[in-house]
Amino acid sequence: MATFLPPGIDSTNIVGFGTTGLVAVFPGTQKVIKFPHPEPDARARCEVEVEVYERLERSRKKESCSTILRYHGNSKYGITLEYAEIGSLREHLRTAGTPSTEFLLRWARQAAEALVFCYASAVLHGDINCSNFFLDGDQNLKLGDFAGSSIDNSPATICYSTTHQLPTLDSSSKSEDVIITKET
């Protein structure tokens, strides 16, 4: 089965891809749509991601958090999110080189704030790595890609990227999120 593009999106709008789906910029906006691959497993992970973003948005009403990608809703085509125009932290580090100490400290604080906010909302990310942190136009770090997350201690559908997996890891916990974050 081939992945189809939502209306108004063509291949020039695609800015990212992963195991769950593709991400494309809505032309003329500061929003992206993440739409799943057609496989049932990818669609199921997308449903988990919607549930996580909706929970985090409800939590934002009680406590402000700017370190998680903003959720703008979902449709039959996919999830609409804030556009982090610089892209993933991993890509940025590959192209821009070693960041200043100022940026490293800022990003460390922002990553910690994102994780604390998630844990307070009973969400465990499950795949913390530099590909799932994104930079906006002001180089602020934002956590995204919750397709493999655990909610209320449910089993995570993805247990960390293979390149970052601990040999003894067979489940997700806050400790593993912190260990993985430190190692990536």
TrEMBL record:
Signal peptide: none annotated. Transmembrane segments: none annotated. GO terms for molecular function: ATP binding; protein serine/threonine kinase activity. Keywords: ATP-binding, Kinase, Nucleotide-binding, Transferase. Its EC number is 2.7.11.1. InterPro entries: Kinase-like_dom_sf, NEK_Ser/Thr_kinase, Prot_kinase_dom. It is an enzyme of class 2 (transferase). SUPFAM superfamilies: Protein kinase-like (PK-like). Residues 9-184 form the Protein kinase domain. This is non-specific serine/threonine protein kinase. It comes from Trematosphaeria pertusa.
